[in-house]
Write a structure and sequence with these properties.
single chain, Triger factor/SurA peptide-binding fold, Chitinase A, domain 3, 3 domains, four-stranded antiparallel sheet, 15 helices, globular
Length: 473
């Protein structure tokens, strides 16, 4: 049971890493008359071991990408078809190898997983079917795609995840490096005592929690493209505003000055040693999507009576770190069929106005209207450390004063209204630091192992490209 729940939660977040395109060295010409006959009659674009990829599959995947892309610019037709074909080939190889290894999903197990997905979205099975069909896919096709995703995920878990080994020495080294980075003066930061603040801006490409491989790969590619463009002679603020204007799904945010403990941990790791005017070296991936980050400025706030304090850089012994924790509550309206963004924003704005006018209590409204497990407790989430919440929620929460109510905030889970109850200084224990270090090391190793595994599968498969076009040649 726990494995099924874990699988549902992680299925689309961990199974889909963008695949680098190998060279198209295969011949596009049919090897013999038989292949030509297959190509012309059945619309086969490529033969993959004992299976094949059809031109219709390519067309369907391109249509899905276009629909989910929110108007984002796509490559030219020929390039896009090559990219999609390559992804379909790699997916086909994984499915073939997984099934040969005896990995399968029974119809009863698949029914249970689908029922759990519907329940998590607070939908009956009839409503869930209607939602799938409304998206343009038949329910039978959805079942088939979900089954394939589960099989590939389990295959990857067995072949890749199980190979990741992390030693205590690696964890110690990771913490030591972080301790040195925290103790050392930031690059180009003013040499003065006091607490440092970073002014960070981001271009954010969101990815829904239930997005498929094509959508995730396209979002990553778009983020990489924006990062390359930002490295050129362009104004980051203008680039972000332009990207958001061209594609409404893309968000551009200037987060303003923040102390390190008020930045998500993923962001802090990416920009910790970056000077003013510099970009994070790579795109940051979070559960909510992909982030292109730039440090606009760094400064140290010093009280008038405070003398500069020397910074000790030699001690790398792991120690507890002081962080700011926030106790907040929220009202959540989940993404679901029949509730538009405009309707959700309007409803939450009404609740906000009632609370601000003292015509209603936030906790009572949360009990009546919030659509998550915190509703029974008046929407209280408890004490949260930096990096525990999705970035959009955390950004909005960190800007609030105690008792203040936010404007409606959109995240991958739906629309939120947030109120901060308390803040406190707390200790991030060495034990917690080791947990974070182990997770960060695992993520880094997984990325490399997964890409190597995919390349090995691709290189050892027998693949022949027959006809990539959507009409017979």
């Amino acid at each position: 049971m726990n494995r099924s729940i874990k699988l549902i939660r992680n299925l689309f977040l961990l199974a889909c890493v963008a695949v680098a395109l190998p060279s198209y060295a295969q011949s596009n010409a049919p090897a013999n008359a038989s292949e030509s006959k297959i190509r012309d009659i059945d619309g086969v674009a490529a033969v993959v071991n004992t299976g094949f990829v059809t031109r219709k599959e390519i067309d369907d995947r391109i249509a899905t990408i276009a629909k989910q892309g929110g108007g984002a610019a796509m490559p030219d037709k020929e390039t896009l078809r090559k990219q999609v074909l390559e992804r379909l080939i790699v997916e086909k190889i994984q499915l073939q190898d997984a099934e040969q290894s005896g990995i399968s999903v029974s119809s009863a197990e698949l029914d249970k997983i689908i029922a759990d997905i519907a329940a998590r979205n607070k939908l009956t099975m009839a409503e869930f079917r209607a939602t799938i069909m409304k998206s343009g896919s038949s329910f039978e096709r959805y079942r088939e795609m979900l089954r394939d995703d589960i099989i590939v995920t389990r295959f990857r878990e067995r072949e890749v995840d199980s190979q990741i080994k992390i030693s205590d020495a690696e964890v110690d080294n990771y913490i030591s490096e972080r301790t040195q980075a925290m103790n050392a003066p930031a690059a180009n930061a003013p040499a003065a005592g006091g607490q440092e603040e970073l002014d960070v801006a981001q271009i954010f490409i969101p990815v829904d929690a239930n997005a498929g491989p094509g959508t995730i790969a396209e979002a990553r590619k778009q983020a990489d493209s924006l990062l390359r463009e930002a490295r050129g002679d362009v104004d980051f603020l203008q680039l972000g505003a332009k990207a958001a204007k061209e594609n409404p799904r893309i968000k551009f945010q200037n987060l303003g000055y923040r102390t390190p403990d008020r930045l998500p941990q993923l962001f802090l790791e990416a920009v910790r040693n970056i000077g003013p005017g510099q970009l994070a070296n790579t795109v940051v991936k979070s559960p909510a999507g992909f982030h292109v980050l730039k440090v606009l400025d760094r400064r140290v706030m010093v009280a008038a009576s405070q003398a500069p304090t020397p910074v000790a850089t030699g001690d790398t012994t792991p120690k507890n770190i002081t962080i700011t924790e926030t106790n907040a509550r929220h009202i959540l309206l989940r993404n679901r069929a029949g509730l538009t963004d405009a309707d959700a924003e309007r409803r939450l704005s009404g609740y906000r106005d009632q609370v601000r006018a003292k015509a209603a209590d936030f906790g009572e409204l949360a009990k009546k209207h919030s659509e998550d497990g915190s509703a029974a407790n008046g929407g209280v989430l408890g004490w949260m450390s930096p990096g525990q919440l999705v970035p959009e929620f955390e950004f909005a929460m960190n800007r609030l004063q105690i008792g203040e109510v936010s404007n409606p905030v959109k995240t991958e889970f739906g629309w939120h209204l947030i109120q901060v109850l308390e803040r406190r200084e707390a200790q991030l224990t060495v034990e917690k630091q080791r947990e974070f270090a182990r997770a960060a090391i695992r993520e880094r190793k997984f990325e490399q192992l997964y890409q190597d595994w995919l390349r090995q599968l691709r290189d050892t498969a027998t693949v022949r490209i027959l006809n990539l076009d959507n009409v017979a040649r």
